[in-house]
Amino acid sequence: MLKFHTQSHIEGMSCPYCQELLLQSGLEGKLAQQLGGPSSEQQIVWQDLLNSAGGAMNVMAAAFGDRARDAQHDRLLADSGIEPYPSAHFDRRKFLQHLLLGAMVTTLSNCTGAGNRREPFSSDIPTTRLEKTHLKIAFLPITCATPIIMAQPLGFYEKYGLTVELIKMNSWTQVRDAAIAGELDAYHMLSPMPLAMSLGLGSVPSAIKLASIENINGNAITVASRHRQTVKGPKDFKGFRIAIPFIYSMHNLLLRYYLAVGGLHPDRDVELVTLPPPQMLSGLRDGTIDAMIVAEPFNQQAVEQGIGFIHLLTQELWPGHPCCSFTASQSWIDEHPSTFRALNKAIIDSANYARQAYHRREIAQAIASPEYINANPKTLEAVLTGNFDDGLGKRRNIPDRIDFDPYPWKSFSYWITTQFQRWGLLTNDNFQHEAIADRVFMTGLARQLSKQLGQTPPTLILRYEDLKFGRFDPTEPNQYLQQQIAKYKF
Questions:
Q1: What pairing do the DSSP bridges indicate for beta strands 134-139 and 186-190?
Q2: For 170, how many CA atoms within 13 A lie in the half-sphere containing its CB?
Q3: Which of 164, 216, 220, 370 is the most buried (most CB within 10 A)?
Q4: pLDDT surpasses 60 at 116
Q5: 207: CB partners within 8 A, 6+ apart
Q6: Does residue 21 register a pLDDT over 60?
Q7: Does residue 247 have a pLDDT over 80?
Q8: Stated pTM of the model
């Protein structure tokens, strides 16, 4: 299967559709090739149609019914060690209408070269085609949710014909349970959550799609001020009680990664407790926890309140790591394909706006109010601009302390699932990392929408990930996992 390609080879091809074809992989790509025939042009047309219609499994459902969809799904995942989740509600009439519309538009395209290329779908979805315009989206009041939050006061939802009510939630458990129950339309989630939910880890299996990444970086390990003279590295956390926001979080996985380097087993040598972020500040203050790894603005608030110091930014452990994501259920996407594309486009547009450093102060003001993050705008400015005090008497300037890149690299998924295995959250020795990444991460659609916005998203789905203590090669995830275990003994 094709994964890594030289940029010159890909860009040297005359047909953008054929360029795209080379970059497809996994179950969706295989079905696209089967259904599309021998022609590269036909194959990529099929791939675009499959993506727009919610995936290849929905094509099978439209043609043969839900039982055939489930059978095809089970067959394709049989070797992956992944249990299929129950078939979601599927509106065949809406799907066929959407598929036929896509085919009509695509017929107007051709493969005669980049100069004549037309996108398979319009860059602007007419509001008259939206299945639903009044939406409810869950979020937690943290800076990781910036694209979802700022899209309301700064007009990004309105730009795409949407009226959005943001529903503030108190914990990731509440978000997860609301998504399983289908209470809202879309959800702010930690990037490992859709993977865990799709695998049935910690909950019933639920078909949740990761549509785009909300933020990269943006967290820190903060230690209680009373440990200021003793904590210098990971080995110094032995015996500590450390708060994390959720088991299936990048916070938990990166903390475990860091502690292991210091020779500490995170389930034996420290005590990890799950707490909502506001309670972490109280814990640092009253001594019930020694440290926390959490999103902003809580680390900066600990510094401002004199109860903690920033020991390490997660950006220092893995530059560019994913934190939070924009998600929706497969069943909701099936019922609202045009609305979903418009909503995801608004989030990607918002994230790209937030990525520009000169917008950060404006954004801090926009998201600070009580109905959103409810924080001092100056605190949010310190986080968003990366110009901050660390609680150790240093003024630091790290512009990408938090950043916003909506592209969902599938190598993110591969690393996350290797760590699920490493720490016993996923007990499957023959787990196929590629299969779950293909099932959950909507990388192709995110690329397509970004292009329509005039952005230049990556053309690959995988990349090397350079962490503080070694490079992760997503083409060899199991080898990476075994090397970690061999080196650190767990």
A1: parallel
A2: 3
A3: 220
A4: no
A5: 85, 88, 198, 329, 330, 331
A6: no
A7: yes
A8: 0.79
Interstrand relation of 387-389 and 271-274 (parallel, antiparallel or unpaired): unpaired
Burial class (CB in 10 A: 0-12, 13-18, 19+), 22: middle
Residue 364 in contact with residue 381, Cβ under 8 Å? yes
Does residue 389 sit in helix, strand or coil? strand
Partners of residue 208 on adjacent β-strands: 329
Q: Which stretch of DSSP H or E encloses residue 23?
A: none
Give 289's DSSP letter.
-
Q: Which residues contact 217 (CB under 8 A, 6 or more apart)?
A: 313, 314, 315, 319, 320, 321, 323, 400, 401, 402, 403
Q: What is the pLDDT of residues 305-339, one digit of tens each?
A: 999 999 999 999 999 999 999 999 999 999 999 99
The answer to whether the CB of 379 falls within 8 A of the CB of 304 is: yes
**Helices (H), ranges, 287-409:** 298-304, 314-317, 330-335, 337-355, 360-367, 377-385
Q: How does pLDDT run across 139-187, given as a tens digit for each residue?
A: 999 999 999 999 999 999 999 999 999 999 999 999 999 999 999 999 9
**Tokens representing residue 480 in the block:** 């990476």
For the stretch 346-366, pLDDT in tens is 999 999 999 999 999 999 999
- What tokens appear for 273 in the block? 């407790």
